[in-house]
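TICKET: design request
STATUS: open
ATTACHED STRUCTURE:
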């Protein structure tokens, strides 16, 4: 199963990605987290891993990636699996690994289009077995839809925090996912009971809300301290139950 996590900046995409990845690992799944956010340098710390080498470098950097894909049309000549990813570009342990597509490291180095192109081709060519879960953490907003990344997901999860901007963005995400023929579900995050009710009442597709994760002190403190996040959250189990139909 391939999952894409999206939402506005600061809504908690990386936190939900980490909680979901750890939960699937505990459930015995083979989990690959794909970090496709070129501006966020915190996901690897939440997972408790070192930041792996940018996967784009495997193809010679951003410009090299374009040349490789233009010449071959795909990363490899045939479909490939998680085990085919070169070990030097993975961080992790046992059943849980992290792949970082690429990061903006220097001023004026140029746009991240090559990284987005690499992420798209990676998901396009990747085949999963029944016990594989691939979770892609995207950049803020909807640019990944424009890049075509979401076409290669089995399901799209949007994280919604208590803000008008998140509620408004949910309509755009729902419509774009529908246009691609991909199911879209919403996870409310950092919302108390009153806020969750307000968000539900404002969302057009109320049935798409599958969980409401409250603000959890342990999660907040781990984020503040830059510590790994491995906490069992009941609401994440609810998300997994809903997604079981797409395994």
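STATUS: resolved
RESOLUTION: sequence designed for all positions
ATTACHED SEQUENCE:
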């Amino acid at each position: 199963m391939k999952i894409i996590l999206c939402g506005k900046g600061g809504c908690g995409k990386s936190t939900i990605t980490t909680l979901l990845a750890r939960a699937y690992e505990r459930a015995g799944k083979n989990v690959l987290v794909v970090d496709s956010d070129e501006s966020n340098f915190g996901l690897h710390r939440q997972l408790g891993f070192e930041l792996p080498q940018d996967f784009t470098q495997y193809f010679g950097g951003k410009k090299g990636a374009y040349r490789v894909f233009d010449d071959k049309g795909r990363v490899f000549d045939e479909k490939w699996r998680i085990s085919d990813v070169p070990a030097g570009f993975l961080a992790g342990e046992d059943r849980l690994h992290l792949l970082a597509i690429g990061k903006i490291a220097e001023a004026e180095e140029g746009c991240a289009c090559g990284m987005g192109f690499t992420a798209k081709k990676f998901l396009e060519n990747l085949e999963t077995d029944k016990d594989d879960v691939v979770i892609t953490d995207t950049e803020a907003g909807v640019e990944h839809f424009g890049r075509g990344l979401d076409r290669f997901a089995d399901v799209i999860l949007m994280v919604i925090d208590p803000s008008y901007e998140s509620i408004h963005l949910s309509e755009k995400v729902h419509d774009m996912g529908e246009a691609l023929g991909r199911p879209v579900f919403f996870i409310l995050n950092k919302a108390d009971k009153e806020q969750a009710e307000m968000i539900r009442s404002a969302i057009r597709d109320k049935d798409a809300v599958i969980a409401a994760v409250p603000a959890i002190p342990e999660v907040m403190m781990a984020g503040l301290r830059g510590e790994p996040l491995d906490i069992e959250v009941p609401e994440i189990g609810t998300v997994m139950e809903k997604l079981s139909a797409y395994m």
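CLOSING REMARK: The chain has a mean pLDDT of 90. The first helix runs from residue 13 to 26.
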